[in-house]
Amino acid sequence: MSLNLLNLDAAQLVSFFADIGEKPFRAKQLLRWMHQFGEADFSKMSDLAKPLREKLAASAVIKAPQVVSDATAADGTRKWLIDVGNRNAVETVFIPETNRGTLCISSQAGCALDCKFCSTGKQGFNRNLSTAEIIGQLWIASRALARDAGGTPARGAAKALGATPKGERVISNVVMMGMGEPLANFDNVVTAMHLMLDDNGYGLSRRRVTLSTSGIVPAIDRLRDACPVALAVSLHAPNDALRDALVPINRKYPLAGLLAACRRYLDRAPRDFITFEYVMLEGVNDGAEHAQQLIDLVRDVPCKFNLIPFNPFPNSGFKRSSRDAIRRFAEILLAAGLVVTTRKTRGDDIDAACGQLAGKVEDRTRRTRRVVEIHSC
Ligand code: SAH
Ligand code: SF4
Q: Which residue ranges make up each domain of the chain?
């Protein structure tokens, strides 16, 4: 089987070229063709000599996953369903805002961590996505958005990733907040993030790439060393008893250790705060007492809170907190000097809001093998 060059970051491409007797600068040329011009056809790479193009075509491919569907919501949110083989599909969502465009990327087909309010977690895990499948989501979205902006597929991709006529990027931010736990697919996610950050790739700053984790403590430390990007931690509860119940990975990595890892991360982080995500579940974690406990819990961690109104899915057993409850909760945190935002629900008419992403996963963790619809983000 041919090697898929979308799986390789700059350092890996340099070794690939060394193995075929070529100079390191070829890596830079190829990265630009693949990621800045969205080109998958070696024969069109005009600054590579013909014999090299033929050598590449004989031993390698540039292959992004296939798009199954592509839908745009009334508010401009756009969602792609992406085939990752063997009856599995994941979703990628683009969220346009006034001054930025955020792409939400998936890292796994399903998730093994079983958070109780997350339908991905409830419905199982199939496998880690490859680097090509992860970066392929950015590749696909960049090309599609560029085409819409009026560019040719090749030039347009560069336009999407570089400057628009107004000097803005179409995709200015990437969040690893789609399906799956990114730190449970560490190597492939880090390689894909190298490509997002590479000046010959997507050229995003570390501050504009955010990884969201449910709190795999040793992997947070590894990330600090391997690829420190902006970090979001899915807290969701202010004490271990409640977090054990909602986010089962807490039993292995309880809150004290998680918060210590957040403090260590800040030594190398591109931003001087951790974002804490907190899903608002009526009558479960949204009381004044929970807000007070949270204030004590995060006392030593520079942070911002992002309150996420729960997005329901069938048989979840949870309800979204009322607007008033969310406002009261936010006010208690704000009064203690914390920075708090409430996540807007976007794209819910195409099921693209957080907690509504629907992919397809053939669960391999349960006794009965089955295909299930999954929801995440
Ligand atoms: N696995 C990672 C990233 C993917 S989930 C993590 O857990 O952080 C992205 C965010 O959406 C997480 O904060 C997650 O807890 C939240 N989420 C999951 N299900 C949700 C739902 N039904 N409604 C609202 N937010 C949800
Ligand atoms: Fe996995 Fe994140 Fe869902 Fe938890 S919230 S089950 S870690 S995707």
A: 3-61, 66-376
Q: Where does 3-61 sit in CATH, by number? A: 1.10.150.530
Q: Which ligand is nearest to the CA of 310?
A: 1
Ligand 2 site: residues with CB under 6 angstroms? Answer: 111, 113-115, 118, 120-121, 180-181, 214, 234, 376
Q: Are 280 and 319 in contact (CB under 8 A)?
A: no
pLDDT surpassing 80 at residue 347: no
Query: Measuring CA to CA, which residue among 180, 269, 175, 191 is closest to residue 216?
Result: 180
Q: Which of 91, 133, 181, 277 is catalytic?
A: 91
SS3 assignment, position 92: strand
Residue nearest to atom 16 of ligand 1 (CA): 377
For residue 345, what pLDDT is reported?
75
Report DSSP state, residue 7: G
- Could you confirm whether 354 is annotated as catalytic? yes
Task: Please list, in sequence order, all residues whose beta carbon lies within 8 angstroms of the beta carbon of residue 19, skipping any fewer than 6 positions away.
Answer: none
Active site residue 91: yes
Q: Return the residue matching tokens 């957040």.
A: 262
**Closest listed ligand to the CA of 359:** 2
DSSP conformational letter for 243: H
Find out whether the beta carbon of 377 lies less than 6 Å from any atom of ligand 1. yes
Provide the CA 59 distance to its chain's centre, in angstroms.
31
Count CB-CB contacts under 10 A for residue 72.
Answer: 16
Q: What is the pLDDT of residues 93-134, one digit of tens each?
A: 999 998 899 999 999 999 999 999 998 888 799 999 999 999
CATH code of the domain made up of 66-376: 3.20.20.70
